[in-house]
Amino acid sequence: MSFGDVATKAGGGGLPPNDGLGPLSDRLSLGVAARLSRYLQVLTQARKMGKETISSQELSEYTHVNSTQIRRDLSGFGKFGKRGVGYNVDSLVSQIRKILRTSGQHNIALFGAGHLGKAIASSDIFADHGFRVVAVFDQDPGKIGEQVGPATVRHVDDLRSVVDEEDIVVGVLAVPTAAAQELADKLVDAGVKIIFNYSEALLQVPPEVTVHTSSPAVDLLYALYFYLT
Amino acid sequence: MSFGDVATKAGGGGLPPNDGLGPLSDRLSLGVAARLSRYLQVLTQARKMGKETISSQELSEYTHVNSTQIRRDLSGFGKFGKRGVGYNVDSLVSQIRKILRTSGQHNIALFGAGHLGKAIASSDIFADHGFRVVAVFDQDPGKIGEQVGPATVRHVDDLRSVVDEEDIVVGVLAVPTAAAQELADKLVDAGVKIIFNYSEALLQVPPEVTVHTSSPAVDLLYALYFYLT
Fold first, then answer.
1. CATH number of the domain at B106-217, please?
2. Taking all residues of chain B, what is their mean pLDDT, rounded to a whole number?
3. Which of A163, A191, A228, B136 is most solvent-facing, going by the fewest CB within 10 Å?
4. Class for the domain spanning A30-100
5. What's the helix, strand, coil split of chain A in %, to 5?
6. Which residues 101-120 in chain B show a CB within 8 A of chain A?
7. Is the CB of B220 inside 8 Å of chain A's CB atoms?
8. What residue stretch is flagged as signal peptide (chains A, B) (predicted)?
9. pTM here?
10. Residues B1-42: tens digit of each pLDDT
């Protein structure tokens, strides 16, 4: 039994041997998009710290992705690196952002148009990483039609059709604890495999579904503990 | 050089040999409050999972705090445990919450009365852990006087006096990136040693100050990477 975040790695569906990189107009596989997103996070931080070039070896140390895999991921999109010098950080950041913005296209459905939901929906970080909050739901009928970030609030009854039409891969629950399990059930029924739970509910889901439980306040307290002791 | 969250452990100020436990009417030291808060997080999760009793050894495994230290922390507040059986989870949760609510009293100043700031300020988790958002600041004059969670929005010019009067131990920055460094400077000048940074700014602070950088969107993307690869 483990405590803290209840998270089980999503099972099945390995990457095709050629990394799943098709023509640019195809959508990137989730695995590739996720790795590119991780490189982008690290590169963005490197850039902030004034680092101008980075080698695949360094990227490997920071991301814990095998450096051969990194070079393969990045080679599929054209030449970014110079042998012996490494990749230009600025250039790589722009290129990866561009690729993720155009070919990432992995969609998020958000539940809860309260403060936290609005904070998440209006974050422009997602777009850089190829993820989009394409649908927002709230059980308050008064909020239907309201603009939240890039989306308009819809009724929870539309969940199933939205998940199908928009090919939702992640459901985010920024809702009161009492509402979370029912929404999780609906997401699971609709075929969504990854759920981010910002409530305090301990969600019951089938083994092939991943639940990540977190919240800004809990994270803050958890980190405080490590800084104060 | 390390990437990701830029966090340096707060230096100096060790705990007195008797754990800093004074009479209950005294405020708990930060170290003790932080450990109790950590036990409470783990115990709350244990309770959700239906666990009725827990031993100091188990608590030690989950929190990574030495079990002798745990027994010492908990013994100072009266008998919670039964030899051979362990502590009653429900009872321990109530007792620790009560202690933290009355003797925790560690205060947080929040900057930014936008969506994320409001989400953090209105979280009732802090109170259980003995932390209180006692002050909220925003640079928009139109927001001064607005109620945000348990506090009223004040002008940033009041920062110094608020930090002194309210004995602020943590500053939380839920502000646009461009505004973060200036606020961090003000917090540091006022003597605050721990800063939670929800912006994308890479903050420059003196070595004795701890900065924890995070944001719901970044955490979501980071976790997604691990679930998808």
1. 3.40.50.720
2. 82
3. A191
4. mainly alpha
5. 45, 15, 40
6. 114-116, 118-120
7. yes
8. none
9. 0.76
10. 333 333 323 322 223 333 444 444 467 887 888 888 889 989
